[in-house]
Task: inverse folding
């Protein structure tokens, strides 16, 4: 990367810049080290040697005459001055990295080819994205599309850091500065239980009844799991978690063999392959509102026209759900 200096006005107003301009490379190294709480992870992300990142941090601390990290703690933590600089650096680094990506795309032609990276929940990556991606690849056969299947917080951190161009997730609980959310579809909650299970006899089953049975749930990183357990907690109920699994396909298989009942929002992807399944389903709309699923994108991300087309493809794929 060329030696680029950032406009110092904003940082100077906070007392960070007294003399020479800050080197944007040092600010980028600082931002990712702070975000990841690790010099080595930041070095891998930036494709730099760890000594180079360490040197960047040392020069930055020298330039602003402040200790930015408490190195006596593991993992390393920001000092009060470091936290202030981190908040100031976030939009600057995001803008610079987005600009570099856009420039590289134009120089290499990949922007015209429609290359992009997308993150989503594993179940959406399995059941929802393929139909949208299939049509897109037919129009842009040379496009390089990277798909990352991760939990919500990992996806949002990756979006903020510019590691992915967009993520398909549930609507954030509150507005996130610098990120806009496009609603795609609603995912209702369902209960799955083995065929013949007594809980299936009552179509308006209650949380109290659900709490009486062994449950098969997704991991604690799952939004569905946290939402369900919060609802149980509000009623003073303690769920009996018999199995904790990583994806809904595993959950469904273990329900079929009678290991417990499950709460899911992915039954809307059920197809004819479920005709011979060994489980029954109850709609839980009388207990839970549906989860809003959509695509989140950084406001300052310069997406190509082709990539914006894919967001339209995602909307079209949602119509039949």
Result:
């Amino acid at each position: 990367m060329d030696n680029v200096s950032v406009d110092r006005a904003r940082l100077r107003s906070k007392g960070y810049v007294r003399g020479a301009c800050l080197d944007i490379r040092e600010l980028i190294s600082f931002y990712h080290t702070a975000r990841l709480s690790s010099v080595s992870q930041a070095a891998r992300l930036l494709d730099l040697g760890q000594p180079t990142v360490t040197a960047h941090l040392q020069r930055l601390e020298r330039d602003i005459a402040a200790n930015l990290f408490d190195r006596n703690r593991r993992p390393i933590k920001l000092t009060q001055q470091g936290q202030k600089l981190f908040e100031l650096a976030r939009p600057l680094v995001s803008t610079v990295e987005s600009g570099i990506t856009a420039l590289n795309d134009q120089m290499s032609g990949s922007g015209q080819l429609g290359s992009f990276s997308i993150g989503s929940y594993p179940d959406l990556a399995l059941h929802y994205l393929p139909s949208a991606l299939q049509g897109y690849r037919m129009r842009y056969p040379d496009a390089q599309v990277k798909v990352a299947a991760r939990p919500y917080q990992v996806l949002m951190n990756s979006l903020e850091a510019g590691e992915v161009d967009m993520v398909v997730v549930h609507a954030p609980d509150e507005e996130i500065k610098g990120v806009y959310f496009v609603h795609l579809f609603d995912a209702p909650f369902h209960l799955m239980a083995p065929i013949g299970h007594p809980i299936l006899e009552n179509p308006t089953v209650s949380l109290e009844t659900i709490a009486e049975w062994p449950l098969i749930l997704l991991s604690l990183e799952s939004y569905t799991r946290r939402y369900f357990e919060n609802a149980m907690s509000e009623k003073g109920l303690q769920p009996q978690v018999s199995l904790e699994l990583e994806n809904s396909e595993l959950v469904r298989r273990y329900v079929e063999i009678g290991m417990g009942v499950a709460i899911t929002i992915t039954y809307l992807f059920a197809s004819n392959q479920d005709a011979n399944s060994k489980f029954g389903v109850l709609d839980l709309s009388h207990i839970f509102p549906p989860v809003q699923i959509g695509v989140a994108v950084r406001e300052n991300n310069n997406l190509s026209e082709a990539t914006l087309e894919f967001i339209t493809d995602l909307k079209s794929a949602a119509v039949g759900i």
Q: What stands out?
A: The chain is about 45% helix and 20% strand. The radius of gyration is 24 Å. The first strand starts at residue 69 and ends at 70. Residues 133 and 310 are 8 Å apart (CA to CA).
